[in-house]
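Below is how a single chain appears once it has passed through the pipeline. First comes the sequence as given, then the structure the pipeline wrote out for it. We keep one example in the README because the format questions we get most often are answered faster by looking than by reading.
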Amino acid sequence: MQTSVSAISSTFIWRRVHSLMGFWLVIYLILHLITNSQAALWLGNDGHGFVKMVNALESLPYLHAVEIVLIGIPLLIHLIWGVYRALTARNNYLPADGKKPSLKYERNFAFMLQRWSSWILLFGIIGHVIQMRFVDMPKRAMLANQEQSMVKISFDEGLYPLSSRLGATLYDAKKIRAIEKGSNPSDPATSKVYDEEIAEQFIAFENGEEKREWIQTLCSFCPGPNEVVAVADSPGKTMLLMVRNTFKSPLYTLLYTIFLLAAAFHAFNGFWTFLITWGVILSYRSQKRMIPVCMIGALALAFLGLAAIWGSYWLI
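Resulting structure:
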């Protein structure tokens, strides 16, 4: 007696991989927004919780490789299949022309929002990465054998007390030009045998080179009339100032609010689907009971994100 074994379709595999990557990204999003929520100055004790967590993450070895493997690859896989599904999906909630049904059910509405939110997330993630990881990302340079972080921000009076509490130094264009006029180090004398005086010259030369590179990094920002460069002894402090500076802009605040709400809904509606896809909730009753749980999760996630967006500048 022979038993036939049917092959598993590629669509079946891709749907489960897409679902699994989405679940992993929900976990990452929760951790990401827990960190970001502490950038709310009224909630996170002057942002020290945010600074501490960012510094811990930035100190991880092989950080870029970790980000690519644990975030970039899962995001790319989920994005590719998600775009395909968004392009091929047939929404049946909106009013129909008689050629297809119009089903005014709760889950049909959620299906439609999931597809719409995926497009918001596609462009939102691209813009978020470009802005936060490339355009506004703080730069680093060594000074006195200590790494310092620098970021260009627009000036406002609130920076006076905040930079003092964070231990950050602000440099405007006039101050940077004055620093730039300093002398460059000259090459030290050399010798084939050890000489204490020559050793001191080499140490002074290296310190001078380090200072010159630090000045070059500082000058590379070219701040405008209403801009300053903030310099601090840790990346967490300058990233906090970068986040605060981003949400000074009403436009960025509005765009990130839409982006955040779309992410919160997409994450927990997708989590509900993940539980069904992987057989965790199969009965109609269990699926129904899980909906309010996911709604609470989406609201909690939205609160964490909105705290960072509106609390880092507007509510203090």
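The CA atoms of residues 170 and 230 lie 5 Å apart.

See the next section for the split statistics.
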